[in-house]
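User: Can you recover a sequence for this backbone? Please restate the input before giving your answer.

Assistant: Of course. Working from this structure:
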């Protein structure tokens, strides 16, 4: 029995509709449009520092969105997604700085290679579940983190420099300008969000949600659950690699710290704060995470202590994250 046939069956549609979020697509579209318009106008009203901070938020939001596809929609909690963030940065660093390829070749080649590697890693990791899945993804991440430190052609722990930004001279602007780079990151972030939205609203995305809610039932309905999980793993890795490319272009630099387990942990925190299983949740979580962390670090050197307290308060009072709580509240009123 094909997936489409099962999706069109009364039982399948009923089961998946019960998993749909309480807020309509039209409300999400309006929120997304408002979100995009606000970001387009932002540089006109704020200082250069805030614009730079917004760039960091958007890059972190793309990274967390990749984690959200795997964790929020598929129910696979990973502590290894930072390896794909690092693959993105190292990919264009090797392509442009080491091999001398132009950026427009290095970037797509990097994403294809990351997808292939992620599919291979995912085929191994998705044979496990729960804590075992979390630990095996962490093990893979630490393995590549160690390789990045030891390998001579990645320049060891010093990392690689000279990563170029896109050549926008045809438009009469330079991506080295902070405002121009802001709009470049904004375009990539919006395209990433649209791709993620298309994925999660497709039959493929519905199956991922079904796997998250009841994997055994989806298997009994005839779905090739293993293949769907590998697909989700690879797509999430590609989105994380896009964030890695942006991050390395932002700093003109990449080093092994981009692949650390702490980076993966921060991505998971952003998803939890903003709201898993919500398209814009990771961006809201990234904004809260970056802004609160910056503000606390300006007040005290022990900001991690207070950030931990802040995180506990968010989990206690915003179950489902900030946007998840708002979505649930609106759904109850409707």
């Amino acid at each position: 029995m094909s997936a489409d046939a099962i999706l069109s069956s009364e039982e399948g549609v009923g089961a998946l509709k019960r998993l749909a979020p309480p807020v309509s697509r039209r409300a999400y579209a309006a929120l997304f449009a408002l979100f995009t318009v606000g970001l387009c106008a932002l540089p006109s009203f704020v200082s250069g520092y805030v614009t730079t901070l917004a760039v960091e938020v958007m890059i972190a939001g793309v990274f967390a969105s990749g984690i959200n596809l795997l964790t929020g929609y598929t129910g696979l909690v990973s502590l290894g997604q930072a390896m794909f963030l690092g693959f993105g940065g190292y990919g264009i660093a090797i392509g442009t700085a080491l091999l001398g390829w132009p950026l427009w070749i290095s970037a797509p080649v990097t994403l294809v290679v990351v997808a292939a590697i992620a599919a291979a890693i995912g085929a191994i990791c998705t044979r496990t579940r729960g804590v075992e899945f979390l630990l095996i993804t962490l093990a893979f991440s630490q393995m590549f983190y160690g390789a990045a430190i030891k390998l001579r052609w990645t320049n060891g722990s010093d990392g690689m420099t000279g990563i170029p930004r896109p050549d926008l001279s045809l438009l009469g602007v330079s991506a080295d300008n902070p405002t121009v780079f802001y709009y470049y990151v904004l375009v990539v972030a919006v395209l990433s969000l649209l791709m993620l939205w298309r994925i999660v609203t497709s039959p493929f995305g519905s199956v991922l949600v079904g796997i998250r809610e009841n994997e055994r039932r989806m298997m009994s309905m005839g779905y090739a659950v293993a293949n769907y999980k590998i697909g989700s793993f690879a797509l999430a890795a590609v989105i994380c690699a896009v964030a890695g490319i942006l991050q390395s272009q932002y700093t003109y630099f990449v080093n092994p710290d981009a692949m650390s387990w702490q980076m993966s942990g921060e991505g998971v925190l952003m998803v939890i704060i903003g709201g898993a299983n919500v398209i814009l949740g990771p961006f809201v979580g990234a904004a809260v995470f970056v802004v609160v962390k910056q503000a606390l670090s300006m007040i005290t050197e022990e900001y991690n202590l207070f950030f931990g307290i802040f995180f506990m308060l968010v989990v206690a009072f915003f179950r489902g994250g900030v946007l998840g709580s708002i979505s649930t509240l609106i759904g109850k009123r409707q």
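That completes the design. Strands lie at 160-161, 253-254.
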